[in-house]
Amino acid sequence: MTATTHRQGWGKALRPTEKVLPEHARAHHRSMVLQHLFHAGPRSRADLARATGLTRVTVSDLVGALVTEGLVTELGARQEGKVGKPASLVALDTSAFQIVAVDLADDERMHGAVLDLAGAVVERRSATHDGRTGQAAVDALLAFCQELAAAATRPLLGVGVGSPGVIDAHGTVVEAPNRGWFDVPLAATLSDALGVPVHVANDANTAVLGEFTFGGASGSLLVLTVGEGVGAGIVLDGALVQGARHAAGELGHVTAVDERDDVEHAPLGPAQPCACGRRGCLETVLAVPALRRRIAGLDPAAADAALASVGHRLGIVLAPVISALNLSEVVFSGPAELLDGPLRDAALAAVRERTMPVISSDLELRMTSLGEDGALSGAAVLVLSGQLGVT
């Protein structure tokens, strides 16, 4: 029996958004069993049948196959005082396979880890990307993934990558200006080289998946990732929001500084050029490099005032989003020394000034509960979802 088989379940799963076709029924049933074990912990076959609505024969067949695959382990009889034969428990064997997770949101380094199926970090690594763009950035990422894969101590279930930019359902980076990636088939390229399944998604979407699955967040939240760029991942009523062209949450490229309104925007200075080709985008003032430049050489009071001015502008951008979606939480993922304090306080104040009390009176605007591992946990969820159907 592994040490991880006694853990409590995570409690929530993403709401499905697609119909299940008859030809996909067995795979769907398999994911239902795995998902229930992931979230609820050890259960008997009868428990699984009741929870999933499947017959006991179907559940027994699925569990037998999963035991053979090494994903599920037999724990033996349940200890209970009832009369009759005690039920035999099974559990997800979270130590049987491992996942490589990579976060590319940082403006200076790539962060990666080897995790078990419960999201626990087994090995952690980082590597500088030295401002590489285009094919050089792809090559650096591949070398980093190879290093992490070599550090795994169990068979790899797959690799998950959270990347800046607009990324389609096949893991192709449609557009990531800061990386110089346009129509780059990143998932396919990495998978061919590594020989394992690779799942790539927008870094903000991976962060919100991590927060929702492992961070105890509510069913309607926005995670704002602040690194080399700025992005947002949204879960609404338990479903990940991706948008018509997989570009939902691209708040970093909403105009935040408009040169036609110099008086109001004076604290932020003139609109700066953005990597997307426009001027005054939110990430030109909120991205980590921009924040560091803004407070460089300032005394603490002046630095706090400078961060608060950015937070105020962020609150103006967030207010209509929060109001339209009636979100209950906004979670910041990024350097706490820049985001947590005057910037966060000013953002919340600006949101409350610009929205109805029924929208914002109970709104929580906080730092991620997962720390630096939020995006890595989310990248692991990409693999759990893509390979096991677990969210």
Explain what this protein looks like in three dimensions.
This protein has 391 residues and is of the alpha/beta class. The protein has three domains: 3-92, Arc Repressor Mutant, subunit A; 98-209 and 373-388, ATPase, nucleotide binding domain (Nucleotidyltransferase, domain 5, 2-Layer Sandwich), CATH 3.30.420; 218-368, 2-Layer Sandwich (Nucleotidyltransferase, domain 5). It has helices at 25-40, 45-52, 56-69, 134-151, 186-194, 203-214, 262-265, 283-286, 288-295, 300-325, 336-339, 342-354, 357-360, 374-388, and strands spanning 43-44, 72-77, 88-92, 98-103, 109-116, 121-128, 156-163, 166-167, 173-176, 181-184, 198-202, 221-226, 230-236, 239-241, 329-333, 364-367. Strands 6-5-4-7-11 form a five-stranded mixed sheet, with helices on both faces. A five-stranded mixed sheet has the order 14-13-12-15-16, covered by helices on one side. The protein is globular. It starts with 24 loop residues before the first helix and ends with a helix. 44% of the residues are buried.
